[in-house]
Write a structure and sequence with these properties.
Layout lengths: L3 H21 L27 E2 H10 L2 H17 L9 E2 L3 H14 L1 H18 L6 H10 L4 H9 L5 H13 L7 E4 L6 E4 L4 H15 L1
Antiparallel strand pairs: 1-2, 3-4
Length: 217
């Protein structure tokens, strides 16, 4: 079996790509508007900030076998190609707390569209460009690509305490709410919520969104 942690990381990117596609396929006259809200969750909260080589770390700690790693990379490459993702498997596994801090701060201060752009950049940098997931330069580029003033973003990124406790509280809340894996999408509705775990296909996300629209009328 492939390791669930590594699959979950990559499939979170797949899930976002597929959900984004589903949202674009909703009817233009839809009476319901969906707003994305991102909540933080750490797969590896004990990882160091410096990190270590991703490929070798997973092969050593999760597989112990080059052949199994090759099977994983082939599988995820095929999934990624279908969604326009060029998965690469080098780079660094490291603590992502400060990436979450950046997302939550600008989601709160500038709104979900800005947070969405930050996440798009972070995913591309980590999964396709093999960049450190929470290095200052990675975060600054993500903020810049989201339209945030570089001086403002740099000051926030360098002040490691700003927004830190609030982000840690949100992470603890997710654990307290029995969230134990990613990706996890909750679509809130008027009558009920629809929860989807794992990277679903585009038509599954679309069906869930349309169900919420129908029940909201």
């Amino acid at each position: 079996m492939l390791d669930e942690g590594l699959k979950a990381q990559s499939r979170t990117y797949l899930a976002k790509k597929r959900l984004d596609k589903a949202l674009t396929q909703l009817p233009s006259e839809s009476p319901v508007t969906f707003k994305r809200v991102y909540l933080p969750y750490q797969l590896y909260p004990d990882a160091s900030e410096e990190g270590e080589g991703k490929y070798e770390w997973y092969k050593k700690t999760r597989y112990g076998d080059e052949e199994k790693m090759k099977k994983y990379t082939m599988l995820m490459s095929a999934y990624g190609e279908a969604e326009g993702i060029n998965f690469k498997f080098g780079g660094t596994v490291a603590n992502t707390l400060h990436a979450h801090r950046l997302i939550q701060h600008y989601q709160e201060s500038k709104g979900p569209e800005t947070a969405d752009k930050i996440i798009n950049s972070l995913y591309q940098q980590y999964f396709e460009e093999e960049r450190h997931p929470s290095a200052d330069e990675t975060l600054l580029r993500a903020a810049s690509e989201a339209g945030i003033d570089e001086t403002e973003a740099s000051a926030f990124i360098q002040d490691k305490r700003e927004g830190l406790m609030e982000t840690k509280v949100l992470i603890r809340d997710q654990v307290g709410n029995q969230v134990d894996s990613v990706p996890r999408v909750v679509i809130e509705g008027k009558r009920r919520d629809v929860e989807l775990e794992g990277a679903k296909e585009v038509d599954e996300y679309l069906a869930a969104l349309n169900k919420i629209i129908k029940e909201s009328s």
